[in-house]
Amino acid sequence: MHQSLTERWSRVSLRSKITGVTVLMLTLGLLVSGIGTMAMLRQYVIQQVDSQLQVDAQSASNSYSAAALGQGTTAVVSSDYYVALYDEHGHLKDHTWRDHPRDELPHVTGSLDLQTVMELDGRTMTLEDAAHDTEFLAVAVPLVISPQGTLGTLVMAVSLKPTENTMATYLTIFLGFGLGVVLVGALLTRLLVTSTFAPLREVERTAAAIADGDFSQRLGGATPNTEVGRLNRSLNTMLSRIDRLFKDRARTIDQMRRFVGDASHELRTPLVSVRGYAELYRMGALQSPEEIAQAMERIEKEAIRMGGLVEDLLELARLDETKPLALAPVDLMPLARDAALDAMASSPGRTITVITPIPAEFEDTVERPAIDLAHSTGEVPAASATGPKPAEKPPETSHPTNGSVSFAGATLARLRTRKPRKTDVPAPAPEAAPVSEPATVQAVVMAEENKIRQVITNLMGNALRFSPADSPVELEVAVDRRNQRASIAIIDHGEGIPPQIRDKIFQRFWRADTSRARETGGSGLGLAIVASIVASHNGTVQVVDTPGGGATFRVWFPLACSPSAPQRVTPATTP
Ligand code: ADP
């Protein structure tokens, strides 16, 4: 029973509950105040009638007694009163209201002899008529009824009907007003609740739409300062976050699917060739040792290509993991020099120039140093004859070389094993170098060194692959103090990159469909890795044309002292 009531109550809508409870409270309040008022009022009115009756009865008794003793005339008593005279034994002698039917007169039960009247001592009695329709308030007082002084009783009664009628009228008026108040109250409560809950219905509708999969729905309408307005604001924030998460998730899944598809596609080609050669061999199609050697060479090349691809894929997967970087101040200069040395080793005959930045204050007085690493004949070229001048105009704080220092290939080993010079030690860039000892501006950035090396290796690899074998390549390090950043640029003089594909080349597996790109057999992941590493270091990468032809890739990193530099991760201490 109790449970079914609770269930039924919980099934009622909030609006109906609030309206119902308000109406119930209003009705109860009105009833209590109405009935209470009526009870008090009736008592008060009856008390008034009672006191008046007492006064009038006493005065009538005195006046009747005086008249009976011949000392005056009987006073006229109001016709509203019923007056009866009883002798000393309680027998009715005379009474008024003779024109009233007998059963409408107050009916005195019991004896009204003098003894009883004396005991009553003027207290008021309640009498009824014979039909029990009307109540009377009566009082019995002794009086002299004969000139000899014989005592009798005067009973004076007044009908309570007028009082009851007044009370009934009051009750009718009160009930009329009460009903009106309850109806108006119910209507107002309903209107108020409906208008207050209107935004909640909006929330309900929006939630239903979201449940159906429309995550673009947002809540609005409610005044921001109301409870519903605040709720809407919080829900909207939550929805935006969920929406963003869903979109991110969908994008990640999509990327993943494309990535896996592209990776499988890339791996399928070399696998098919390896399998093809294996089948040829099994079927005995490869007879001569030259044919077998050729097939083995192809298999080896394909395996190398697959190995490179798998390494790139692993690198990208690691970058996607967004593991915290092992950050430390890194000077870009030694990295540029090492990359140049590596390139020299792998591409003999190329002229590789490293252009270093110098402080602005030495701009006009100092010969700008540059290191040209020319490795073709083993001779040391004259300073003015080495590598071409870098074609791209470097930013403010970097300077093209005009007094190049060159090294032959023979110096490579020495350079590789050299102890880091003072300028190689990562340290905050000096604010003003001493005039006596002009030094290069240090391009010290906060980074993970291996990652920066990987960026330079990928860009250098592309520069060497996409430019003629004898064309020069420049590595330029620059510092932009104003924007608190340092850059390394790889400048080649090859085929260049058309502007329309510059955005695409950083996408995973994107390769220009040129004969050279096909020849180079790249996976299309090199620049995607670059973009990923640069982004994780809060840096930027740009590609522009090299004046005179070719591509210039410039990578910017925040200086180690810059607020936008990535935060150093404190390594966890192992016990
Ligand atoms: P790949 O492994 O094919 O080199 P990358 O992501 O490194 O992949 O490069 C994507 C494409 O961008 C290359 O296929 C090539 O078309 C173009 N590209 C990259 N670097 C250069 C460059 N220095 N000169 C001309 N084209 C370039």
Automatic annotation (TrEMBL):
Keywords assigned by UniProt, alphabetized: Kinase, Membrane, Phosphoprotein, Transferase, Transmembrane, Transmembrane helix, Two-component regulatory system
Needed co-factor(s): a divalent metal cation
Region Disordered, residue ranges: 379-408, 415-434
Reaction(s) catalysed (UniProt annotation): ATP + protein L-histidine = ADP + protein N-phospho-L-histidine
UniProt lineage: Bacteria, Bacillati, Actinomycetota, Actinomycetes, Micrococcales
Gene3D superfamilies the record matches: 1.10.287.130, 6.10.340.10, Histidine kinase-like ATPase, C-terminal domain (3.30.565.10)
Protein name, entry field: histidine kinase
CC annotations in GO: plasma membrane
Subcellular locations according to the entry: Cell membrane
Enzyme Commission number: 2.7.13.3
Principal cellular location given in the protein's record: membrane
Keyword Ribosomal protein set for record: no
Ranges for domain HAMP: 194-247
Domain Histidine kinase: 262-561
Chain ranges passing through the membrane: 21-41, 136-158, 170-193
